[in-house]
């Protein structure tokens, strides 16, 4: 094996390892943000707030503010004003 071939093999190894690390980081970042994989309908009850709904239906290890933001985003809500009887899509968030 020549020096040039050895250098190429080493360079390809470094590139391969770098690509794998980047892919793993992207995958873990996607998981950490809590991807919405599904939703279910929730009918708003008198006195409900987005905060309470997010606390009740969001995962225990997730920041409630992030769950509220996700509910607002997928329902195109501009604020936290809810009406009794309104139907919201609530995300099923993977941890």
Structural description of this entry:
The protein has 95 residues and is of the alpha+beta class. 53% of the residues lie in helices and 16% in strands. The chain is built from three helices and two strands; from the N terminus they run αβααβ. The chain has helices spanning 3-33, 50-57, 64-74; strands at residues 36-43, 87-93. A two-stranded antiparallel ribbon has the order 1-2. The longest helix is centred in the first third of the chain and has 31 residues, at 3-33. The model is unreliable at 29-33 (pLDDT under 50).
The secondary-structure class comes to alpha+beta
Name the poorly predicted regions. 29-33
Radius of gyration: 22 Å
Please tell me the overall pLDDT.
82
Strand content: 15-25%
Largest sheet: 2 strands, antiparallel
| N- to C-terminal distance | 49 Å
For CATH, the homologous superfamily of the largest domain is named as LysM domain
What's the total helix number? Answer: 3
Helix content: 40-55%
Q: Regarding CATH, which class of the largest domain?
A: Alpha Beta
User: How many domains make up the 3D coordinates?
Assistant: 2
* Second rung of CATH, namely the architecture of the largest domain: Roll
CATH level-3 fold name of the largest domain:
Membrane-bound Lytic Murein Transglycosylase D, Chain A
Q: Judging from the principal axes of the Cα atoms, what is the shape?
A: rod-shaped
- Strands, count: 2
Order of helices and strands: HEHHE
Side by side, the strands of the main sheet go 1-2
